[in-house]
Structures are given as C-alpha cells and as structure tokens.
Amino acid sequence: MEKLVACVQKKPNALCRLICFPWAGGGTSALAQWGKLFNDSIEVFCIRLPGRETRQEEPFAKDMASVINEVESVLLKALEEKPFAFFGHSLGAYMSFAVALHLREKYGLKPLHLFVSAAHTPNSAAYLALQSASIPDGKDEALASINILGGYSELPRDEDIRTQLALTFKEDSRIFQTLSLEAEMNVPLSCDITCFYGSDDKVFDVQGWQELTSGDTSFYELPGDHFFLLEPSNERFLIKYITRCIENA
User: Residue ranges of the Thioesterase domain (predicted)?
Assistant: First the structure.
C-alpha cells in the first residue's frame, strides 16, 4: 500500500476516502497534501506510479492496463471497506475514469463521485487528437512540448530534475496513448461527475462528460491556467466543494 499510495495524514475513522490521480510527469507532492486540508471525515490517498519519487528505481508502467491492475489489486480491500471518491487532474482524470469503469465491470464497485479536472471528454475530437499526437524523443523536445498532456506548473532549473521530468512525462504520454475506452463507455457510469477547468487553459471539450454517466454532471470554470488547482483560492474552493459533495452523498 505505501509503495503505491501517499497518505500524509491517516484518518482511520474517516467516513470516505478520496483517491487522487496526478497529472502527466507529476508525483504525489501536491495532491497528497490535501489530506491535511480536509476534515476528519475524508482521508486522502494519492496514487504514486512507478518510475518516480520513492519508486524511481522501478521500471515505468508499460501501459494503462498495468496501471489499472496495480491500483485495483492494491486498493481493492480499502475500496470495499468504506465509500470512496476519485479526483484526477489532466492525465489523472483519464486514469480515474478508466479505473472507475473497470471497478464497475469487474467488482460492481463505484465511487460516490468522480471529480475530473482539466480534461477533455474521452469521447471528444480533442481527446482523440491527444491520443494520436507524436511523442518527442529527446529531453529538450519533451520539455518544449510538455503541454501535450497539459504542461507543468513550473519547469525546474536543476538539470538532473529536468532530465527525470522529461523522461517521466514521455513515459506517462505513452501510458495515456495505450488507453482505450470505447467498449466500456457504451455503458455509462452511475455516479455524479464534476468537471473543473481553468479560465485561461486551452479550450476544453467538457460538456460531453454528461453523456458518460446517468448521474448528475456539474461544470466549474475557475480562474487560472492548466494548474489553476494550485492557486490557494481555487484550492480552498475545491476542498470545500468536494467535502460538501461527499458528505451529502
């Protein structure tokens, strides 16, 4: 569990767990800290993929199916013992959606709520364009085109860190391009979905998310770019909104 999941504040008496999936090239440092911001009713787990942070010596995941299988095999008991919700940003939104679909098909489990952030609808032309985009080979090319899956809040100056970021981003891009959802999306989810996006981000095709669930769908534009969620005022809004949705559910 500790290899896959970062949990900075354990809350054994929490009523629900929020499972967070980070963006391409990202780790757990930002979203895991949410565990300190939510009240005691919500425990936060942030997914740590191989090839980064404490798993840097492990080989990167070869495809999205292996990511889904690891998340499910490690978290299945935790997901069965109490209610859970998903939050995913950019690439993490697609990961969370894919895991939600697979949990429904294989185990009959569903999140209380799916919160997706800065992500095109998976049945949109914009999403399909991302899936077919070429992945740069060299480090400089990768850093220059890191916006393929949404960019990075601020590129580090340290050369070793830049090299690792470029490699992680390229591998995450390959994982993303192995994701196939066509068959599973024929049967929509039944949980509520909320979609967040930044006012200064690229134009996102988000309205289609309402076609992917029989539950309610909400949309919120927040001030900022692709990483609007890192702005303190937006973070406070997200924490308050997510808490309300989970507690009402």
Answer: 17-237
What is the 3-class SS of 181-196, one letter each residue? Answer: CCCHHHCCECCEEEEE
What is the dihedral sign for C-alpha 66, 68, 69, 71?
positive
Q: Smallest Cα–Cα separation from 153: which of 231, 55, 50?
A: 231
CA Rg, the chain, in Å? 17
Write the CB contacts of 66 (distance below 8 Å, at least 6 apart in sequence).
none
CB-based contact 184:102 (threshold 8 Å): yes
The residues annotated with a catalytic role in the active site are 90, 226
Q: Give Cα separations from 42 to 31, 45, 190, 247 (angstroms).
A: 14, 10, 22, 9
Kindly report the pTM of this predicted structure: 0.91
Cβ 214 vs Cβ 188: under 8 Å? yes
Rounded average pLDDT over 53-63: 93
Nearest to 112 by CA among 43, 191, 48, 20: 191
In tens, the pLDDT along 204-223 reads 788 899 999 999 999 999 99
Alpha-carbon torsion angle 62, 178, 193, 41, nearest 10: 0
Domain 5-248 annotated CATH 3.20.20.140: no
The pLDDT assigned to 142 comes to: 56
Q: What would the pLDDT profile of 134-186 be if each residue is shown by its tens digit? A: 776 665 655 555 554 455 555 556 677 777 777 888 888 889 989 887 656 77
Q: Which helix (H) or strand (E) holds 43?
A: strand 42-47
Which pairing describes strands 5-6 and 84-89: parallel, antiparallel, or unpaired? unpaired
